[in-house]
Predict the 3D structure of the following.
Amino acid sequence: MALLPILRYPDNRLHKKAERIREVTPEIRLLAADMAETMYEAPGIGLAATQVDRHIRLIVVDVSEDQSELLTFINPEIIEKSGECVGEEGCLSVPGIYETVTRAERIKVKALNLDGKEFQMQAEGLLAVCIQHEIDHLQGKVFVEYLSNLKQTRIKSKLAKKARITA
Ligand code: GNR
Ligand code: NI
């Protein structure tokens, strides 16, 4: 297993659109395991392949307190959504920034598991928010794009400044 470097906003690679996975190979399973390790180490509650510069439709999520509920979604699709839920979001690719985003409260997702088998799952609350956040990454969308242009500009310069200090 290996820890993978996480892309930091602003980075054009975070806006690439991920490709559908044609076959769940051992390489995909290894990437999913490395992504889970990277997510837990960060620590975060989700990670999309886009964030580790792999532009394929793969996400991992675990919103449990004790890292006991790892979920892997391959080619995830939201097939139903309802309600609204307003909450603070953060992102491992946008460190130190927390902003309010409105999402669907409840979703139904269809995906493949690591055996290449299709499954469906209902989610609500934080799990639903996290899955929507990760699927956005696969579309090349970072949560700050829901904010005003002014806020996006401020976040970009704040992170650029921080990168200059830490580099
Ligand atoms: O760790 C994470 N926390 C989080 C909190 C609120 C809404 C979404 C998230 S996802 C984030 C990890 C991450 O950046 N995934 O892409
Ligand atoms: Ni994120």
